Amino acid sequence: MMPEMNRRNLLRLAMAPLLTSCRRSDRKLIGVVPKATSHLFFVSIHAGVDRASKDLHIGYQWNGPADETDYARQIQIVDAMTAQQVDALAISATDERALVAPVERAIQAGIPVTIFDSGLDITNYVTFVATDNYAGGCTAARRLGRLVKGQGKVAMVMQKPGGNSTGLRERGFDATMATEFPRIEVAARQFGMGDPERSRAAAENILTAHPGLDGIFASSEASSIGSIQALRSRGLAGKVRLVTFDSSDTHLKAIADGTIDVMLVQDPFRIGYEAVQSLAEHLAGKTPPKRVNLPVREIVRDDLKDPAVQKFLLPPAMKGG
User: Fold this and answer.
1) Is the distance from CB of 256 to CB of 283 less than 8 angstroms?
2) How confident is the model over 134-162, as a mean pLDDT?
3) Which SS3 state, helix, strand or coil, does residue 130 take?
4) What percent of the chain has pLDDT over 90?
5) CA 196/CA 161 separation, integer angstroms
6) Which of 54, 272, 282, 316 could form a disulfide with 49 if both were Cys (CB 3.0 to 4.6 A apart)?
């Protein structure tokens, strides 16, 4: 589990929406725009950005909306960074279409752009750094399919419309269930809109409509937390099989007590690090890879005892290093 000092380090990052490395004449400045600043996933990405900034001697400005659904605020931030003439821009788009125009404006202004975590409907970026989300959704379907012994009814608590990364997971899950588990019905799909409370309500609605439900796939941090709460409130923890995405204190407690069967975890620290590194290389005249695909890692309860898993869940930069 996460020691209190490490948690304070994370919170310091979360509470600094405009954390900016000092801009000197010899130091380039990268604008980094996450989908949201409140989720632990993006706090962990921030830690990777911060470590890369130190290692590569490059400045950065971190700013994003508080709410992952607030694409209007994200557009304002991108436009402001373009007007500020940052040397490069890294963005995790809240909506794969709504953010196209502001990002294109940045590129037309001569600002190179790396996309991280969630795709954007453009091709003229430097690098796309992300988890292989479609494959992650396929893995979720296979694990849940085996947990319910290849038959019965399952459901998805989804993130929100227009989100590229979570949409890929959900499509991968659906496609794999349809082709590999013909005796399993995906009986319900509801969006939680990136909010734990709304995700809980979505999960509650599904459980009410389908009292014999065998399993749930929750495709994001917020939908996972909401699903955990719904199962516990109904006394169904450990009875309805649950496969989740991402990690938080709530996830770790839920996998330890058996509410979660399988937790699929990304490497947000590395996503943040690779995003900054790609732009640092580009600004130095090098050619970084066009795509960096990172696999998901499957974690079950017994894995929590493994020091390697604990190190993965708590990257070095979060330990004050």
Assistant:
1) no
2) 96
3) strand
4) 78
5) 16
6) 272
Lookup result for tokens 């725009």: 33
Handedness of CA 303, 12, 128, 35 (dihedral sign): positive
Residues 6+ apart with CB under 8 A from 317: 47, 48, 50, 51, 269
Angle of helix 133-147 relative to helix 164-180, nearest 10 degrees?
40
In whole angstroms, give the CA distance from residue 285 to residue 77: 27
- Looking at per-residue pLDDT, the higher value among 78 and 317 belongs to 78
Residue 11's Cβ-count burial label (10 Å; 0-12, 13-18, 19+) is exposed
What is the distance between the alpha carbons of residues 33 and 38, in angstroms, rounded to a whole number? 13
Q: Could you tell me what percent of the chain has a pLDDT over 70?
A: 89
The answer to whether 150 touches 183, Cβ cutoff 8 Å, is yes
Q: 288 near 281, Cβ under 8 Å?
A: yes
pLDDT for the residue numbered 77:
98
pLDDT higher than threshold 50 for residue 204? yes
* DSSP codes joined into one string, 134-170: HHHHHHHHHHHHHHTTT-EEEEEEE--TT-HHHHHHH
Please list, in sequence order, all residues whose beta carbon lies within 8 angstroms of the beta carbon of residue 213, skipping any fewer than 6 positions away.
Answer: 153, 154, 155, 187, 188, 206, 207, 240
Neighbouring residues of 217: CB distance < 8 A, sequence distance ≥ 6: 140, 141, 144, 154, 155, 156, 157, 173, 243, 244
